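Chapter summary example.
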Amino acid sequence: MRNFSLLLRRSKAETQRTQRTQRNTKSITELSRRQCQLTSQPILVRPTKRVLSYMNDSNLLGWLISVAIAVFLLRPVWRGFAAGLAGTDSEPTKSDSLRTFSTEVVGESHYQRNLESITGGKTPDGVEKYLEAELILEDANPHDKSAVRVDIQGKTVGYLSRERALQWRSSSSKLKTGKCSAVVRGGWNRGPNDQGHFGVWLKLP
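The structure predicted for these 205 residues follows.
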């Protein structure tokens, strides 16, 4: 009888162990199935605040760069438009300057201080500044009654040569003053032994 009871308890324990093993196997199988489902689906990651801030900063930087490029490209157009409103010529290129500003003002060596004031002073590479000049007839000039004075920004910078003064007077006999485009070049200062004077050239018909 005792042996039968012992055998019964062993059989019951073995049955319980088998049931636990089955439950564990089922749990492992279910966990594996869920993992497979998760790996087969795309992973969506919500961007963090730092990522969104970086994206916004990048968009702002790109917008600022685009604006800077547009301003740089449209600057010559705006200069020409502003010059047209002001009634003056737009700034020419260097090749245009050599071809169109062909009338050299004489006597400018006596007015270097005025030219320094107009251009802002000498620089190591010199200057090339485009301005508007005023031509004034000096009928009372004691040295030459046909003299034509050249002023820029209200300061005298020289005179037309005798030949050009006569031509100007013949083409504008009814005008005491006239205006034209001018360019001031030169004025470099690279040391005590390497300095250059300012020169003035006019764009005359």
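To summarize the output: The two ends are 141 Å apart (CA to CA).
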